[in-house]
């Protein structure tokens, strides 16, 4: 199984609510750089947080890859989502190759937990950073971090 975890691109600092913050022009460029690292990968699905900046990020990746399936909105991918719940959702999906688009602190905690088995040292992920994990099951400490790309 491979799981790619992508943090949204740079977003505007303010909006009416955190969920409504949109990507900046720089954020869109960052996402396009990260999306290039997914070209040729056998993705089965793209799941994204319902927040605007994550939806925009997922849409840019979707378009760059020419991905046939629609982006799936996952309410369990918001910034404060429970990392154990996310792992449970991954198990239930039963997919071999999936991209998750979300936010800090969730993405750092998720990558850290899957790789190290705990959340004491979250993996640092800047805007549009892309982590690639591989393992037999999406369980704490049972996946290997294959690559980590930090967008410019």
From TrEMBL:
One of its GO terms (molecular function) is protein histidine phosphatase activity. InterPro entries: His_Pase_superF_clade-1, His_PPase_superfam, PGM_Phosphatase, SixA. It comes from the Bacteria. Gene3D superfamilies: Phosphoglycerate mutase-like. SUPFAM superfamilies: Phosphoglycerate mutase-like. GO terms for cellular component: cytoplasm. This is Phosphohistidine phosphatase SixA. The gene is sixA.
């Amino acid at each position: 199984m491979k799981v790619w975890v992508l943090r949204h691109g740079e977003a505007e600092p303010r909006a009416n609510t955190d969920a409504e913050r949109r990507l900046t022009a720089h954020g869109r460029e960052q996402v396009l750089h990260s999306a290039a690292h997914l070209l040729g990968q056998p993705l089965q699905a793209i799941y994204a947080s319902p927040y605007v900046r994550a939806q925009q990020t997922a849409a840019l990746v979707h378009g760059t890859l020419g991905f046939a399936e629609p982006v799936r909105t996952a309410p369990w991918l918001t910034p404060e989502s429970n990392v154990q719940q996310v792992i449970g959702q991954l198990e239930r999906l039963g997919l071999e190759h999936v991209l998750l688009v979300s936010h800090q602190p969730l993405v750092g905690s998720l990558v850290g937990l899957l790789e190290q088995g705990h959340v004491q040292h979250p993996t640092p992920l800047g805007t549009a950073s892309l982590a690639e994990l591989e393992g037999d099951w999406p369980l704490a400490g049972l996946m290997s971090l294959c690559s980590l790309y930090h967008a410019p």
